[in-house]
Write a structure and sequence with these properties.
By secondary structure, the protein is of the alpha+beta class. The chain contains five helices and five strands, in the order βαααβββαβα. It has helices spanning 18-28, 34-42, 50-64, 109-123, 138-146; strands spanning 8-12, 69-74, 77-87, 92-100, 128-131. It has a five-stranded mixed beta sheet, sandwiched between helices. β3 and β4 form a beta hairpin. α2 runs antiparallel to α3 (50-64). The structure holds coenzyme A. Coenzyme A (COA) binds at residues 2, 28-29, 32, 98-100, 105-111, 133, 137-140, 142-143, 146.
Length: 168
């Protein structure tokens, strides 16, 4: 793994980071989002749109367990984030979301954030780390195995609109 950018710092999430994390989320998940696929494939064009739903999910994570998330900072700018969910009862730590500023990708920032998340899991007694990605997400499918993650399953997500009867 290459070294990360000069001056990069990783610190714990703070409440004031939320709006920047929202921007990184909406930029980063455009093209690699289950919510966006659903809007497109089901022809959903009304509010709440995929951006709103995606952000609500990330925002809930941030608010539920603020101490479990990390941001990458360059100077005073938040340039990436990672959310984590260590589950004490199972010993499995989950990484639900991460994104890096599109202008600064392929410089090791994502790798630095994953390394920080794994450190957090070990410090909290986790035995296993888990992360998911979409088949359409080439970045994830290259990055995670390179970090030692092993593919263990593929899942199909089904959805249907409830304001149409698809069977009639
Ligand atoms: C996934 C993401 C966080 C990676 O951040 P990053 O800072 O670019 O990651 P790194 O620079 O540490 O990349 C490390 C390795 O990942 C792989 N990788 C990253 N981007 C890639 C791409 N576009 N295509 C193929 N491999 C890629 C490469 O193996 C890369 O190493 P290399 O540059 O030496 O070849 C970033 O691409 C991103 O924000 N994507 C949009 C949001 C997203 O997909 N989040 C994850 C959802 S599961």
């Amino acid at each position: 793994m290459k070294l990360s950018v000069d001056g990069l710092n990783v610190r714990g999430y703070e409440h004031g980071d939320a709006q920047r994390i929202r921007e990184l989320t909406l930029e980063g998940f455009d093209g690699v989002s289950i919510d966006q696929n659903a809007d497109r494939l089901l022809g959903i064009d009304s509010s709440p749109d995929w951006q709103t739903r995606k952000w609500l999910a990330v925002q809930r994570e941030l608010e539920d367990a603020p101490a479990d998330h990390f941001v990458a900072v360059l100077g005073s700018d938040v340039v990436g984030y990672i959310t984590t969910r260590p589950v004490r009862e199972t010993g499995v730590g989950h990484i639900p979301n991460m994104a890096v500023d599109a202008r600064l990708r392929r410089r090791g920032i994502g790798s630095t954030l994953i390394a920080r998340a794994l450190e957090h899991f070990r410090a909290n007694g986790m035995r296993v780390a888990k992360i998911e990605t979409l088949v359409q997400n080439k970045q994830g499918q290259t990055l995670y195995p390179s970090f030692g993650f092993t593919e263990i399953a593929r899942q199909i997500h089904y959805m249907q609109r409830l304001d149409h009867d698809e069977r009639s």
